[in-house]
Design brief:
- By secondary structure, this protein is of the alpha/beta class.
- The protein has a single domain, classed as 3-Layer(aba) Sandwich (Alkaline Phosphatase, subunit A), CATH 3.40.720.
- It is built from twelve helices and 19 strands.
């Protein structure tokens, strides 16, 4: 029986009607819960922006060491043997050369070095790298790399940031933004003795990403690694307690300004950099002190002998920083691989400086159980032509070159892709720089299409609108 109240009839409501009428309310409850979680996450990120964050999916690698060979090593003299190049030495290149070239080149130039097979995989490696060759079963050699710019400046920017024309965040900054760091007393991204030319700081810049993702340089290419240090890491005049009081007061003033003037990414970045710098005093000086390493370890990296001491120190520092939770460490051999002439002496000297330290790093990481989740990445900004520049040189070549990866979820003891019979163009299973970036992010547990940042009214990502993960090289 219906009840009458204020001339309205109250009728029983069915369950279906109730759910239909309340469905919007349920959605609002779910939305408010999601917004609250997002606000909480944003608040936590603001308070501690370098805190570890969950990847998109389980990662195979937790950290990266990038061994950058600035100048562009020659693929046909290192990891991509070409018998026809040797056979046809001195003859014209039988196919069309690129329409746009950095400089003119002549006839084919064979490699001055022999290639030999190593390891169970039997991968051929040039005599330039006898020590790295002993680790070949841990390497995945990508022989089909290609890029878009044949000048050092643009090529370095594309290699590091994905763009050869615009200022964009570097790959180390993207990874730090996506994952944070595992050690709150250290930066998420460190670059050791970086180059100051060909883009300079833009190669480790955070660009429009938050300032805390910027790479922290230790020295630069003009400073011997033995003398490279983090500026002002020690303060012998002010005790830590007093420093803490000064920083707290400075932070109070800066936050008051933020409340009155509104958000200011530059000021927020300075606040965070002051806090990180204070915390770094606890761990960075000890990590920079290589005297704590055993004599056997120092010898393995070639430290204390020439010509390997300088690069060996950089490689050992990279291992020490990665061991303590830094996400991305770059080591730069700069700027030596640009042999437009005197290829035989130039590449030989360069390889002697880096071969033993790189092999020492791979062996050390493996012995410590770190290689399985540390991705080691080796390469330059492009390769070199199989045709001669002058009597004994090679020109820039972004159309086909080699890089290798080791550890961190990559299949070892394999080659992937190919250049043509003379090593000029990538022709089989081509891997663009965008594809390499997508693959590296994937190994770190990051989907390159989802790792985005809104700036200037659009979403940006490291790979822009390009990039495919190379699944065939993954374990």
């Amino acid at each position: 029986m219906a009840h009458r109240f204020c001339n309205h009839v109250i009728r029983p409501v069915t369950r279906r009607q109730m759910l239909r009428e309340c469905s919007v309310g349920f959605g609002m409850l779910a939305l408010s819960s999601l917004l609250a979680e997002e606000a909480l996450a944003q608040s936590a990120r603001s308070a501690n922006p370098l805190a570890p964050r969950k990847p998109h999916f389980p990662p195979k690698a937790r950290r990266i060491i990038f061994l950058f060979m600035h100048g562009g090593p020659s693929q046909v003299d290192t990891f991509d043997p070409k018998p026809l190049l040797t056979r046809d030495h001195g003859k014209p290149y039988p196919f069309a050369k690129p329409r746009v070239q950095f400089a003119s080149t002549g006839n084919l130039l064979k490699s001055p070095w022999e290639f030999r097979q190593y390891g169970q995989s039997g991968i051929p490696v040039s005599d330039l790298f006898p020590h790295v060759a002993q680790c070949v079963d841990d390497l995945c050699v990508i022989r089909s790399m290609h890029a878009d710019n044949n000048a050092h400046g643009g090529a370095l920017l594309q290699l590091h940031t994905g763009s050869d024309t615009f200022v964009r965040p570097s790959i180390g900054s993207w990874i730090t933004y996506g994952l944070g760091t595992e050690n709150q007393n250290l930066p998420g991204f460190i670059t050791i003795c970086p180059t100051l030319g060909h883009g300079g700081v833009q190669n480790w810049s955070s660009a429009f990403l938050p300032a805390y993702t910027q790479g922290t340089p230790i020295g630069n290419a003009s400073i011997p690694a033995e003398k490279a240090h983090i500026s002002y890491i020690r303060n012998p005049e002010t005790p830590p307690g007093l420093q803490r009081m000064e920083l707290d007061y400075l932070r109070q003033i800066n936050e008051e300004q933020l409340r009155h003037l509104g958000p200011d990414p530059n000021l927020e970045g300075r606040i965070q950099s002051f806090e990180l710098a204070f915390r770094m005093q606890m761990e960075a000086p000890e990590l920079m002190d290589l005297s704590r390493e055993s004599k056997a370890t120092l010898e393995m990296y070639g430290i204390g002998e020439q010509p390997t001491d300088n690069f060996g120190r950089q490689c050992l520092l990279a291992r020490r920083f990665c061991e303590k939770g830094v996400r991305f460490v770059q080591v730069t051999h700069s700027y030596k691989w640009d042999q437009h002439g005197d290829l035989r002496n130039g590449h030989a000297n360069n390889a002697r400086e880096v071969d033993k330290p790189i092999a020492g790093l791979l062996r050390d990481l493996k012995a410590r159980g770190l290689l399985k989740d540390t991705l080691v990445w080796w390469g330059g900004e492009f390769g070199r032509t199989p045709t001669a520049q002058g009597d004994d040189g090679r020109d820039h070549n972004p159309n086909g070159f080699s890089m290798w990866l080791a550890g961190g979820g990559v299949r070892g003891g394999m080659t992937y892709g190919a250049t043509d019979d003379y090593g000029y163009y990538a022709v089989d299973k081509k891997v663009h720089i965008h594809d390499l970036h997508a693959t590296i992010l994937h190994l770190m547990g990051l989907d390159h299409t989802r790792l985005t940042y809104r700036y200037g009214g659009r979403d940006f990502r490291l790979t822009d609108v390009h990039g495919n993960v190379v699944h065939e090289i993954l374990t």
